[in-house]
Amino acid sequence: MRTIKLTLGYYGTGFRGWQVQPGLPSIQAEMMRALEQVTGEPVTIEPSGRTDAGVHALAQTASFTTNSAIPCENLVKAINRWLPHSIRVYSAEDREPGFHARFNAAGKIYRYRIFRQPVCPPERWRYVHHFPYPLDAAEMRAAAAAFEGTHDFTSFTSPEELPSGPRDRLIHSSRLTEDDGELVYQVHGSGFLHHMVRNVVGTLMEVGKGNLRASDIAGIIAARDRMRAGPTVPAKGLWLVEVLY
Fold this sequence. Notes:
With 245 residues, the protein is of the alpha+beta class. The protein has 2 domains: 2-95, Alpha-Beta Plaits, CATH 3.30.70.580; 107-244, Alpha-Beta Plaits. The protein contains 5 helices and 10 strands; from the N terminus they run βαββαβββαβββααβ. It has helices at residues 27-39, 72-82, 137-145, 196-209, 217-223, and strands at residues 2-10, 46-47, 56-66, 87-95, 107-115, 129-130, 149-152, 168-179, 182-189, 238-244. Strands 1, 2, 3, 4, 5, 6, 7, 8, 9 and 10 form a 10-stranded mixed β-sheet that branches. β2 and β3 (56-66) form a beta hairpin. The protein is globular. The model has no long low-confidence stretch (mean pLDDT 96).
C-alpha cells in the first residue's frame, strides 16, 4: 500500500467547496472520481484543509493511499486527463506510511485580493472582491500587522463552527500590499479557523472605511466576540497559496 501526496490547483467558482456534498459539485468528488478511474479502486482523498465554496487554490495539498503501482509522473498525467480544466494536479510524490496532508502540515499561506479600480475586467471578477470605494490603505497596513503573533481568534471565526479545542493560532506574517490595481492581503499562519481569513479581511476593510482604527485590533482579539469584528468578505477573493511541511 502506497501513500501519495498530491499538489493541485483549482478555481473554486462553480464548486461547493472541497468536501463531498450529495448532489452538489465539489473538488473532492472530482478528485475521487478521477482517482478511481486511474487506479481502478475506490479512493478517499484528504486535503490539508477544506476550502469553502468559491475559494481558489494555487497549491492545495492532499493525500491518499492506493495499491496502484503507477509511477508518480505518470499518475499526474493520468489524473489530469479525468479532471475538469478548472482543477489541475501539478505533482505527486510517495510519502511515508501514515503521512496525512492535514495533520502533517506545519502552516499555510493565504492571499485575499481586493480590486480597487472603478470597473472590474471580466477576466478578474470571479477571482477578486471588487470594492471601488475609498479605503485608507495605510491604516489597513498598520491593522494587518497587529494580527502577527499567537492569539485566540474566536472573534474571527464562525460561531456555528467553533472548534472544541484551543482557538489560538500563530500568525507568522500578516501584510497588506498594493499591486496592479489591487489591495493584496497575505497571511502566513500555523493554521486557520473557519472563515478566519475572510473575517480578518472584513475587519481590515472596516478599518479602511474609517469605522475602526488599527489600534482597535488588539481589543477585538481580546474580546473573543464575533460581533466585535468585521463582516465576512466574499469567498471569491480568497486563494490558498501554499501549504508548508
